[in-house]
Hints:
about 120 residues; 3 strands; GMP Synthetase, Chain A, domain 3; three-stranded mixed sheet; 3 helices
Amino acid sequence: MRGGSRMQRVNELLREVVAEEIRELKDPAVGFVTVTGVDTSPDLRSARVYYTAMGDETQQEESSRALSRATVRVQSRMGAQIRLKYTPRLEFRVDPSIAAGLHMEEVLRIVRDHEHG
């Protein structure tokens, strides 16, 4: 995520507002989504929203499609709540750090099992 205290404050504010808007969506396909971070471009015209979704692969894909369908609504609601020069165009992305952490746990489990087995 980008540095600078102003950008950090903007990113955190956007994360909070987007997370709240996602919780209020009526689409059950969204599932259990957690917004883990936002990375806003320096010109404030776009923002990557990183999230995790609970469930198996099918449920996670449903969450991804539901977020894509809701993007315009979430952007609009966000724009109404936050005073910025531009309302950033949102792009939802699965948080890669969560997957990397889970992979690392699995590798450590395999090594541990191999040492004791």
